[in-house]
Amino acid sequence: PYYVSINQNLFLEASLHSSDPMLELFLDTCVASPTRHNFTTGSYAIVKNGCAKDPTYVEYSSPRRDTVRFRFQTFQFIRSNPEVYLQCELVVCRAFDYSSRCRQGCIQRSKREASS
C-alpha cells in the first residue's frame, strides 16, 4: 500500500524492462476502484482509451520511450472504505510504427443514437 492524503498529487511512473530499445509504452486505460476485485462496477476512469477522463490528470514527457509518467489528485470513494485501488492497462508497441496503438493516442468513441 501507498498512503496519501486526499487531494494530494499522486505521481506515477511505469517502465518497460526489456533489452529491446525499439519498444515504447503507452497508457491506454487507468481505473480506480473502491475494491481490489472489481474494476467495472462503481469504478472511476482516470484515463480511458488513451483519453484523460479526470480533470486533474497530467501526463509528463519522459526521456525514454519505454517509460510513462503521469499524476492525478487523490480522492476517496463516498460511503466506502478509505482504500482506493488502481488498475492501469499499458500497451507495448514497436517504436516508430506510426500505425500502432501507441501512435493513435486518444481515441474518442462516439455514442450511438438511441432509437425511439
From TrEMBL:
Residues 1-109 form the ZP domain. This is DMBT1 protein. The keyword Nucleus does not apply. Coiled coil: none annotated. Keywords: Disulfide bond, Glycoprotein, Signal. The keyword DNA-binding does not apply. InterPro entries: ZP-C, ZP-C_dom, ZP_chr, ZP_dom. PANTHER family: CUB AND ZONA PELLUCIDA-LIKE DOMAIN-CONTAINING PROTEIN 1, ENDOGLIN/TGF-BETA RECEPTOR TYPE III.
